[in-house]
Amino acid sequence: MVRAVFGQRKQLCLFPVLKVGSKMKTYQRWLAGFLGIVLAGFFAAGALVVWVDPFFQYHKPLEGFPYLVDNQVNQNPGLAKNMDYEGILIGSSMTASFDTDWFEELLGVRTQKLSYNGSYPKDLANIMELAFRAKGDRIKAVFMAADQGTFSAGTEEVKFPVTEYLYDDNILNDVQYLFNKDVILNYILRPLADPKDASDWSELYKPWWTDEYYTKANVLMYYEQAQEKQEALPADYFNEAVEKNLAVNIIPYVEAHPETEFYIFYPPYSILFWNDVVRSRELDAVIGRLSYMTKRLLPYENVHIFSFLGEEEIIQNLNNYADYMHYHKNICRHITECFADGSCELTEENYEERFAALKKMAQEYNYGSIWDDWYDAPPRYGTEEG
To answer: ∠ CA 208-209-211 to the nearest 5 degrees?
Structure first.
């Protein structure tokens, strides 16, 4: 009896085990299929990113693809690595309105814009490092906007954190780029769906301001004067910080690449900038900083320094500006023409006189008259009327 009972129990347990085993195999097949689909999706996504390469990490742009180039920090490294160029345009938003076709037209240098809005000297060094690593002595020229105020920053200070996996050459950490939802949605699928937003390669990072924003009234509407201060800064106040930045972030590239011509320019901030400088009692220090930078760089034969700070026809006409610093593309064209013909270039013989005249203009200008007529409309620089 007992044996029969035990035998019966074994018999009863056999079929559930078989059914569970069958279900497990079904689940395993389902799971394997699901994982296969997921892996295939990941592979397809990565392959799509490599093929289109919207951050240009692996190759030049595909012919005909409507690339959107609006992310300076993440797209400039790939542009520096893989685009065809002989010159680079670097600096802050003071370079944003340039058309790089002008450099080829006027100087015979095919130029790639690599701007960083609000860039510090370390930002300039980072992108020069990438460009020279990629092109070496094939870089004929570096066109650099020197916002002299930023040269008082720390030598390692950057405007935005660097995305390391885009700046290095280690493909193993590129998974953050290859499987990035933002890259796929916003830089591959979105341009395909709406190609009218595709970037113009000669005008990358151009400002959104259209011509109607470049008016005196618009500038004054958003401008707030600096607070007046009582104590003036000495003329050498910024020089120590300037020296450190030049020695760490600029001069090493000038010295390492004597075959490259460096065109460094001081952008033409509007008269309102000088109003702030005077009210803050920093005029001696600002002119001292400019003089120190210029004196330090001029001895290098491959450095050409241009100053547009005192061009009264430009800086005193607020119709040339969208705010108190950002100037119209006509001014950018003028700057490029000066690179070509040598106008506005500083030399050992003239820079002290030029800065003395700039200081005198800033001291004597009647700033109060700026507000007399908000709709004063002298023609914008470079227009047919002007």
So the answer is: 140
Total number of residues shown for the chain: 386
Ramachandran class of 27: left when φ > 0, alpha when ψ lies in -120 to 50, beta otherwise = alpha
Full 3-state SS string of 2-58? HHHHHHHHHHHHHHHHHHHHHHHHHHHHHHHHHHHHHHHHHHHHHHHHHHHCCCCCC
- Tens of pLDDT, residue by residue over 10-47, are 455 555 555 556 666 776 676 666 666 766 666 788 89
Tokens of 4: 């029969």
Cβ-count burial 78-105 (b if 16+ within 10 Å, e if not): bbbbbbebbbbbbbbbbbbbbbbebbee
Evaluate whether 225 touches 279 at the Cβ level (below 8 Å).
Answer: yes
The model's pLDDT over 196-230, given as tens digits with 9 standing for 90+, comes to 999 999 999 999 999 999 999 999 999 999 999 99
The alpha carbon dihedral of 332, 337, 339, 345 has a sign of negative
Task: Please name the helix (run of DSSP H) or strand (run of DSSP E) that holds residue 88, with its range, or none.
Answer: strand 87-91
Which residues are 113's β-sheet partners?
89
The residue whose two tokens read 């030399």 is 347
Is-contact 131 82, C-beta < 8 A? no
**β-strand pairing of 303-307 with 345-346:** antiparallel
For 169, the 3-state DSSP assignment is coil
Q: What is the largest CA-CA distance in the chain?
A: 121
Q: Tell me the β-bridge partners of 345.
A: 306
CA atoms within 13 A on the CB side of 109: 24
pTM: 0.89
Residue 198 is given by DSSP the state: P
Six-digit token pair at 100? 């790089």
Q: How far is CA 223 from the centre of its chain?
A: 24
